[in-house]
Each structure stands twice: as C-alpha cells, then as structure tokens.
Specification:
The protein is mainly alpha-helical. It has 16 helices and two strands. It has two domains: about 160 residues; about 140 residues. A two-stranded antiparallel sheet has the order 1-2. Strand 1 and strand 2 form a beta hairpin. Helix 3 packs across helix 5, helix 4 runs parallel beside helix 7 and helix 10 crosses helix 12. The radius of gyration is 25 Å and the shape is elongated.
Amino acid sequence: MATSLASQLQAIKSVVAGAPDPIKRPQTRPSVLFAPKEAADIDLRTILPIALSGLEVLVDLDERFRSYKDTLFSEISLDLDREKMVPKENEKLNGSIHSFLRLLSGHLQLPAALKTLEYLIRRYQVHVYNIDELVLCALPYHDTHAFVRIMQLMDFSDLIIFLLPLAKCCRNGKWSFLEGVKSSGAPPPRNVLVQQCIRDKGLLETLCNYASPTKDFQHSRPVICFCTAMIVESLGAIPKLDTETVQRVLGFVFNGLNPAMKGDRDHKAGALMVVGLLASRATLAPKLMQNLIFFVARLAQHDASESVDLPWLRVMIMAMISLVQSFAAMRLLVPTFIHV
C-alpha cells in the first residue's frame, strides 16, 4: 500500500509540474514593435488600441482597410482563440487574414502598418499559421530591418505538422533560404532573392501569382514593381528559358494584359516587359505567339479608346513589333518550338 501511495503522489507531482501556471507570464513574446522581454509585459488589450491607431492611418491611405476594423481588429477578437475554432471558422479567419496581408503589403514600410501587424502576430499568431502570406507581404521590403525582424519570428523548418483541429499547417522548405537572415540579422540583397528564383522555379511562380491582378484585387505599386523586377531579372539571368519556366510566368503576363482584370499601368508595363524578354530569349510555339500578339493588340485598342497617351501606346506597339519579328524569324528558321 505504501508503494502504491508513493506512486500516486509521484504521479500527482508530475502532473502539477507539467501543468502551465495560469498566473505566470512568459518571459518573452514575439513582436515587431517591442523587444521580446518588453513585449511579455504588454497585454493584448494594450496592443489593440495601438493597432487601431495604425489602422486609422491606413484607412486614410486606402479605404479598403476600413472593413477590417469590425472583423480582425474588433473588440470581440480579444476573446478569440483560433486553436479552438472549428475548421470552417478557421477557413473564414484565414481568408480575412490573407486579404488583409495582401493589402498591407503595399504599405509595410509605414510604422502604422507594423502596429496592425503587431496585433495579428499576438492575437492570431500569423507568424505561425500564415507563414506564406506573411513572407510575401514582407518580401518587397527585404532590404529593411523590419523585414529581418519579421523573419526572425518564423520557423522555416522543412516539416509538416498539425497545429489546428483538422487544419494542416505546412512548414516547407520554400523559405528555408531565409534562415540565414534570422541568424545574421542582415537584410538580404535582391540578388540573393533572384538567385533563389533561378534555383527554385516554384518561388518564381509564387511571385508571379502573387503580383498578378484579379477582378477583385490589384496590388499597389511597391509590390508590383518589386515582383516585376524579380521576374525580369530572374528570366534575364536564366541561361535558357525552357518550357517549364515559360509556363510559370504566363499567368502574370496574360492577367496583366487582360483589360477585364482592371490592372493598372504598373501591371500592364510589367507584363509587357516580360513579353519582350520571352520574345527575344525564348522559342515559343506559334499558337502562344499569336495569343500574345492578340492580347497586346487588344490592350492597345482598349487603352487607346480610354485616353490618347502616345508614349504608352508606343510601348505597346514596340512590344507587338518585337513579337511579330520573333514570329517571322521562327517561321523562316523553322526551329524546334517550345510547346506551351
């Protein structure tokens, strides 16, 4: 009996020792505004007004931010726990977080943006559950210390784990090249990102998809310019543009040239730059070449009907001339086509 009693006491001690102390606070907390130890002493109710003040600044810049005041940054959100949500609730929450981070990406250089991000990190743990979206949001600002600080909050381990009920969170190796940023604390130069796009065509495609306009959303200039530069520099540095590489960038091109997507001038210019590279460096199938010529011509007709901007029309005409010349040369030389 004594032995049994001792075993029970030992079991109780083990449970008590392993149970979290609800009163004891963590020594550090993840933060983009405060030092980790300082952040540990700041509760969520203190952070929400900070985030709302940042949100007001963002609303003045872009009215699309206003709707998030009653969702992601509402008083009700203080009591949310996404780890206890059912899958449908998490899916809805993720959709709201994704759309906000895409919108935030155009303004992440502002202190106001970091104030809102602080709340997303503390309340929704976006640095754990929304790694892809958070990295893409911050990537256009890769040369800033804010980018480094955000990267240092995340785990890029090549693992797949289950963190939410019936919701899979994938931590894959796509961003593992950023581990060096976490340890060195130095912002990565753009050529490092370009070289990674050359090594990993999946990353190149991810940037193409991220920057592509849709009927419901268009990125702001900083994001478009960054992604366009990454795509153009990567395509220019790849020794040979094969079928796989061409396929990965076509979505960016056709969406940018499609008037129905309502992309702005930056989207269109980026798509035309890629068209020029493809025409000069890749051997494209006749059908693809005809489609590209048609899309550029249709865009020129559409834009000319809305306003007479001669320099811009000249850019589109030059793109068509480049395509036609490349098409004519291919028909004369009869090479082996890339079928896309």
